[in-house]
Amino acid sequence: MRIRITAVLATALTAACLWPADGVAQQGGDRPPPTVEVVEVNRLDVTLTSTLPGRVRAYETAEVRPQVAGIIVERTFDEGGRVEAGDVLYRIDAATYEAALAEARAGVSQAAAQLRAARREADRLEELQSRNVASQQALDDAVAGRDGAEAALELAEAQARRAEIELDRTNIRARLTGEIGLSQTSPGALVSTGQADPLTTIRNIERVYVDVTQSAAELLRWRRGQALLALDDTETQVKLRLADGEEFEETGTLAGAEPYVNEQTGVVVLRLVFDNPDKLLLPGMYVEVEMPTATAEDVIAVPQEGVTRDRRGTPQSLVVTAENVVEQRSLTILRNNGSDWIVSEGLDDGDRVIVAGFQGAAPGATVNPQPRSEADDDEATPTSSEPGSASAADAQADAEGQAAGAAAAAEARSTEAGNETETN
User: What residue stretches are annotated with the Multidrug resistance protein MdtA-like alpha-helical hairpin domain (predicted)?
Assistant: First the structure.
């Protein structure tokens, strides 16, 4: 009897061990195809661009310097604020210049009085000479004195105008409408004409220049008419990317190029102009410019994450066919354009290129293609088939296998208990 009980127990234990494995194998056979993210591509004409580094320059710049010497007695503007052309920025002690103007005006009055006397003397001698009472020499001397007095009056008037100008220049005014910088001086400081350092600087940044550098070889290609737009085409629309990576909302135009190639770097400076209504672009800021360079006709733009290379460096893409089977394609790439590769051969209209989920996407495998979501347009997100992530089917199979094993073990224990009772 014990031999029969032992045989029954061994059979139950064997079933308990084998059942989970069979359950897992069965579940593995029903596992769904892996999910991949795809992008549908189409042939079109693509405007190629070059990303060029650049610096922002003010559209207009005026360094404020004194035109007369003296002591600063007042600063009238707010640093960093906006000023209009003609606004008074600084005042210089005007006492000396007021005295100089008064002296010059007195000189005008004196010269005018001397001119009146000289004219009377000349008129008197002309009359006497006509009656042969005065000599011709005396008349000539009187006429010369009158002419000299007229010149002296003109000189005195010019000196008075100069004194007025210098007095007015004690009020240092803005010559440009724009944003004013920090003051480099303060009341009580002595300033002079021709000093090296400006008192402050005014910049007009409602529009700005962006100076970018381009290689001479690329410039020659443009000049020969192989580019999309010529350098003298002021309607060229140029995009700009800020230092934080955001795209500037205003587009710019190509204003011109420096007719000189730097001998050391081999580059030429291109100047672009942008409207800057919100004052986001500040002089000196580093930016990147997307400059249109050419048009590639009848090509396909493929996201860079959808292109790999084999050991020989040949670019390849994995394409999902209409039957949801993965197919490998060799590509001919012209160049990159932003975040895309420009492909001339190897892909067709409507092809679905895999851009994420490559671990389960071997050539010939059946997959579950899903279009890339809008949130993933800038950066592809990994799918559940990435290494280190268990699939839902695997988890379900493991759970069901463990449950089946537990049930078989319980059944074996129940049978053993019944047999022992029967024996007793």
Answer: 101-170
Sign of CA pseudo-dihedral 194, 195, 199, 201: positive
pLDDT, tens only, 128-165? 888 888 888 988 999 999 999 999 999 999 999 999 99
Residue 216: CATH number of its domain: 2.40.30.170
Q: Do residues 320 and 285 both lie within one domain?
A: no
Q: Which residue has the tokens 């089946």?
A: 404
Q: Tell me, what DSSP letter sits at residue 198?
A: -
- Closest Cα to residue 300, out of 315, 322, 312? 315
Tokens 């990317």 — which residue?
A: 241
Displacement of CA 34 from its chain's centroid (Å):
41
Look at residue 78 and tell me if it is in a domain.
yes
Instruction: Give the closest residue to 275 by CA, choosing from 230, 202, 201, 210.
Output: 210
3-state secondary structure of 320: strand
The helix (run of H) or strand (run of E) holding residue 418 is helix 392-423
Residues 121 and 214 in one domain: no
Residue 383 lies in a domain: no
pLDDT digits (tens, 9 = 90+) for 341-362: 999 898 988 999 999 988 878 8
Return the pLDDT at 39: 92
Q: What is the mean pLDDT of residues 15-20?
A: 44
How is the chain split among helix, strand and coil, in percent rounded to 5? Answer: 35, 35, 35
> Which of 351, 362, 401, 403 is CA-nearest to residue 385?
362
* Structural domain harbouring 192: 66-93+171-197
User: 82 to each of 92, 172, 173, 262, 279, how far by Cα in Å?
Assistant: 22, 16, 13, 37, 12
- Residue for token digits 């997100």? 381
